[in-house]
Amino acid sequence: MSIILKTEKLRVEYRSREMRQATKVAVNGLDLEVSAGEVFGFLGPNGAGKTTAMNVLLGFVPPTSGAAYLFGIDVRQPIARQRIGYLPELTYYYKFLTAEELLRFYARIFGLSRATTDRRIAELLKLVELEPAAKRPIKGYSKGMQQRVGLAQALINDPDLLILDEPTSGLDPLGRMKVREIIQRLKGEGKTVFFSSHELGEVESVCDRVAIIHQGELRAVGRVAEIRGNHQNLENAFLDLIGYKPQPAILP
Amino acid sequence: MKNAIAVAGVVVKELYRRKDFYVLFIVTVLICLVMASVNIYDDTHIARYLKEISLLLIWISSLVIAITTTARQIPAERENRTLIPLLAKPLSRTELVAGKFLGCWLACGLTLLCFYVFFGALAASREHHWPLENYVQAALMHWCLLGIVVSMSLLGSLVFAAPSSNATICAVVIAGILFVARHLDQVAVTRPEPFRTVAYIFYYALPHLEFYDLRDLIIHDWPPVDWEYVGLAGLYGAFYMAVFIISACLVFRRKAVN
Amino acid sequence: MTSMRTNLLLAIALLVACFGMAAHLGPEFLGWRGSRSTGDILNVVLGDSRRLFASQFFTKADEYYHSGYYPSMFDNKSAFQTAHIAADTGAVNSKNEGDEHGFLGPPRNWIDRFGRHFFPNRHTHLDEDSPDDLSGSEKVGEILPWLKLSADLDPDNVQTYTVTAYWLWSRMRNVAEANAVLHEGLRNCPKSHEILYEMGRLYEESYHDHEGARNVWEQGVRYWLQLDPSITGGNRPIRELVADWITRPTNLAPAQSGDKLSMEQLSTHLAQLEENAGNLPRAIEWLEAAKKVSLTREPLQDRINLLNSKLGQELNPLLKPLF
């Protein structure tokens, strides 16, 4: 199976705002590989370095050392993103554009032909149930509608790799179910999905493999069953791996 | 290049969907119409004062549109987080900067077209003739000036944190260049060192925007400038646009996206 | 926590207090000497700073006269110290001395040389008929809006009225408007001898109303003489006043010393008027008055001598063939 996403001793340092520390290490020596067709969960507590690692993969932040590749191409080259789709956690799009115009704009950046663009837009608007609102400016959309626009733009180029940052964050149970269905469908089509999430129950049900990162370092990577091991569920395994010890309950 | 053109298209759409241009255009038209209705000793053929006032308003409006539209492009994208899904596409930062410049410059060109058509109609209503070559020349030179202004504002938007501070600084710098740059060498001669050297450095380094101000020639019905000199001025402007845009690309390469 | 009702009552109390204070202070403000509220809109908005703008717009009119080829504050302005539109009226002392064609000087560097292609680069006057497309008497009206604005902004500036009127009646043949401008000037500057001089020229040269011109010029002379506080009996006949003044020592009052040209012009025009009417003795009297303030006395004396000789011919027709 070909490696779609790869990091080699990835290290990202930021200059700290606190005087005592010269730099803050957000990601330290991260080695990851994601194969084609996998659904890969990227887990970690807040501030673990998940978003920083994703920012490197998407070319937003240059690595301090190490390397990252998408489809074998260095992530610093724009062409590395030709076959990916990205859904950020917080979705904001040009308020003055309609959903259709936004998708057409992104399709143009991907170099899609007019016919392909028209077809993809029609399919995606139907998939995310935004057909009635397609010609309204996005500024009039609800939060849920904006997230669905986000999903549509992430899929506009029929990507081979979909990168999702907390895809179910802020969604109601129905919304979360729809996202899970879409992930399952993409997996069925042979696509690769790489996503970060705090919803460990969902991760357990959809992911093939997971990686757990804490304080910038990779703590574990492997199949869900391997990670769970002898623990009752993935959540307990996760807490154990990050070194969390539950506090005894204080009786009144 | 096609990505830059796509980005430019979105910028133009933004301009004509915002109210700025329409407000400025309507205010300009209203003021000019009021000025045109003033009775100047019962002489209905007087036109030059009207041309001067309308051209002044056009210049002010176009500079406001150019600076404010450009100053908020990338900072607003960063603030509204629309930059993230955009840069997650196969679009380089250089293409983004180029696209923003092209879009803002093209948008300015379209607004200039509307303003100059109105100006031509207003002038023709008094003078009963239409020196098309002069107007075309003036509009082209004006557009070239706005290209320099746009590229300067774009660089400023990447250097300064807030769009408002960038817009203010750009407006002050551009006004200073328009009023004073031409005379800096005369000022330099009267100053002692090291101010003299500093004044000369500014004189030769700053873009001389007064080359593009053909208002006096239009107002007082001078013949058009030789196209050879217009071409040279265009090349001069293109050089400065390139310098500012390349600098903007270099600055943006190192900037955090969020 | 205050209730909604309390807040409302407080707001009403404040409103009442504000209106009451405004009603009490209003009449005091209207009666205040520094109040601008009863003036026109420009006076209310700008106050005395409007006079600064007025002089700028007067210069703007001169710039328009030159089709935009005009020195900036950085250039050599010696040939433009007196606005040409004013100097041309002949009613002001011209202070211009310098190169009005080449005030920019030679190009200082390549930027200056290149830049000169993009703004007006030669000296022209709007009203001079020449092959140049920029000139033509029908275009000289373009200076009027700025003169009008200058007059509106500084109604106490006499020169604006005289220059505007001159250009209206002399170059644009718009006599009625020129007359209206001068009358407005007199309303705002009641004792202006300069305006009366210009009005007299209008009556003389446009309306051919010699009597009207004489009356107006004599009134102008009267006002000029009254600039000297030591001159008493201002209502005496003008001949008496002038005769008195001629016999006085040559010290002029400060206000008169600064404006000798005005008296010279009034006197010489009155002299010409009287000469044309055949009143040679009166013409001579006016020329004597002009000589007292003129810087060029010899031509005036020559004219007096000529008139004296003509007077001699009239008195003794037998001597006429000798001249």
Would you give an account of this structure?
Chain A is an alpha/beta fold and 252 residues long. Chain A has helices at 50-57, 99-110, 114-127, 143-155, 173-188, 200-206, 224-228, 234-241, and strands at residues 3-15, 23-35, 39-43, 65-70, 73-74, 84-87, 161-165, 192-196, 209-214, 217-223. The two termini of chain B are 25 Å apart. Chain B is an all-alpha fold. Chain B contains 12 helices and no strands. In chain B, helix 1 (2-17) crosses helix 6, helix 3 (48-71) runs parallel beside helix 7 (132-159) and helix 6 runs antiparallel to helix 7 (132-159). The radius of gyration of chain B is 20 Å and the shape is globular. In chain C, 60% of the residues lie in helices and 0% in strands. Chain C has helices at residues 4-31, 41-46, 50-65, 84-87, 110-115, 144-153, 158-171, 175-188, 193-207, 210-225, 238-247, 254-257, 260-277, 280-293, 297-315. Chain C is extended. Chains in contact: A-B, B-C. Chain A binds chain B through residues 55, 58-61, 78-82, 84, 86, 88, 90-97, 101, 105-106, 108-111, 150, 153, 163, and chain B through 2-3, 6, 9-10, 13-14, 17-18, 80-82, 84-85, 87-92, 95, 256-258.
What is this structure, in a nutshell?
The complex is a heterotrimer of chains A (252), B (258) and C (323). In chain A, 33% of the residues lie in helices and 26% in strands. Chain A has 252 residues and is α/β, with parallel strands linked by helices.
What characteristic shape of chain B results from the CA principal axes?
Answer: globular
Report the uncertain regions of chain B: none
Strand content of chain C: under 5%
Classification by helices and strands of chain C: mainly alpha
User: Helix count of chain C, per DSSP?
Assistant: 15
Order of helices and strands of chain B: HHHHHHHHHHHH
Poorly predicted parts of chain C: none
Number of strands of chain B: 0
Number of strands of chain C: 0
Keywords:
heterotrimer, A: 252 residues, alpha/beta, six-stranded mixed β-sheet, four-stranded antiparallel β-sheet, 8 helices, 33% helix, B: 258 residues, mainly alpha, 12 helices, 78% helix, globular
